[in-house]
Amino acid sequence: MKPIKVALLGCGTVGTQVVRLLDEQADDLAARAGAPIELTGIAVRRPDRHRDVPKDLLTADAAGLVASDVDVVVEVIGGIEPVRTLLLDALRAGKSVVSANKALLAESSGELFAAADESGADLYFEAAVAGAIPLLRPLRESLAGDRITRVMGIVNGTTNYILSAMDETGANYSETLEEASRLGYAEADPTADVDGYDAASKAAILASIAFHTRVTANDVYREGISAVTSADIVAARTLGRTIKLLAICERVGDSVAVRVHPAMIPRSHPLASVGGAFNAVFVEAEAAGQLMFYGQGAGGAPTASAVLGDLVAVARNRVHSGRGPRESAYAALEVRPIGQVRTRYHLSLDVADRAGVLASVAAVFAEHDVSIAAVRQEGRTADASLVIVTHAAPDAALKSTVDKVAGLPAVREVVSVMRVEGEES
Ligand code: NDP
Ligand code: HSE
After folding, report:
1. 136-297: what fold?
2. Which residue owns the Cα nearest ligand 2 atom 4?
3. Of 11, 146, 76, which is closest to residue 311 (Cα–Cα)?
4. Confidence (pLDDT) at 81
5. Which residues have CB under 8 Å from 108's CB, separation 6+?
6. Which residues are annotated as part of the binding site for L-homoserine?
7. How many CB atoms lie within 10 A of CB 343?
8. Which residues are catalytically annotated?
9. Extents of the domains making up the chain
10. 4-130+300-319, which class in CATH?
11. This prediction's pTM
12. Ligand 1, from 8, 11, 14: best to mutate by most atoms within 8 Å of Cβ?
């Protein structure tokens, strides 16, 4: 059988595991694909630093490797350029592409799919969202006959690793981030993780596939975890909640709302027990009801598993002259701004403990048409702590309420503001 020739772009955390699995599982992969899968070259930035892979495969000339006689390009470099140009060149030349690059897919999937369509090549990117978890294929294929209404979950391993450690052991933020980088979970630039860019890219990809529309990372409302304080963690714990960085994609009528932000969820919620670098995603569909996907969301070997799955799919398509799924963006839905999205807030305030304070705070909520679900006051001295949880209201109204409350003379400090998810609204 004619081998399927593969060029690998990048050989870092993920790439080294792809090389290992290709070698260790060569016979099984050939049997499953219907042809041997042959690695013909590996492009890296600094070939002299890669002593664990065969020297004759290494090159610093990624463009030359893409232009060589290969059937498939597997990209695990990351970032936008030069990768975008390399992958467009590959697709235009009829070479199928497997990528783990959520940043690129969330920015340029339309352009990449168009290039793939022109030449009849495949474009697969299961590893780009939630590491090892088979998620994009079920959304794209298994649920193609259903109407998905909501996708919500933890899609960034690094931030989940940090928040879990802060919650469980009171660990220090920056030390835990260093540990996540050492373990290969974090992006080359970890601000992509902690500032929510990575999760926003993944949310854009999930929303695009789930709702058959085109959503880019710029369409996603984004807040990272760098503003989450130990006071927030303690406030959450006091109320039987924990804090997670959530990606939430919702279909609202003829529009979609896509957001990434930290949120308090009840400790009894299934997402609350997702620890370390694990990811979990809930999908709600009209006919299927609720589905949950769970597994390792980051790390070399788990991500390589998803890459290899795509590679076998591409190889099978080549062997049987088939094609993988194309872009499905026919719904062309509008993207709702965050201000119009209905959310719930938790607010923790330091206030003066005197008559009329609660009434003055409650009046601001009423003025903005924000309904209060629960209030709790602690402290009997001059200072008191006031915790308020709202019912769902437009995010813009909640934000204005917080701004006005912060300016009340009786409010000494707004200690914690956090959206609440995973409870009846
Ligand atoms: P690394 O930083 O560990 O590896 C990147 C690799 O790309 C290195 O081998 C580097 O070469 C090479 N490289 C960088 N620039 C160039 C260039 N211009 N030309 C050729 N090679 C280049 O990244 P990861 O393996 O962690 O991630 C790779 C991709 O996979 C990213 O898109 C990431 O978002 C995605 N991903 C990562 C996951 C993870 O857990 N790590 C999980 C899911 C997806 P050199 O080594 O010589 O510097
Ligand atoms: N940096 C990413 C994360 C890698 O922490 O989730 C997996 O996409």
Report:
1. Dihydrodipicolinate Reductase; domain 2 (3.30.360)
2. 298
3. 76
4. 98
5. 80, 84
6. 187
7. 22
8. 202
9. 4-130+300-319, 136-297, 340-420
10. alpha beta
11. 0.97
12. 14
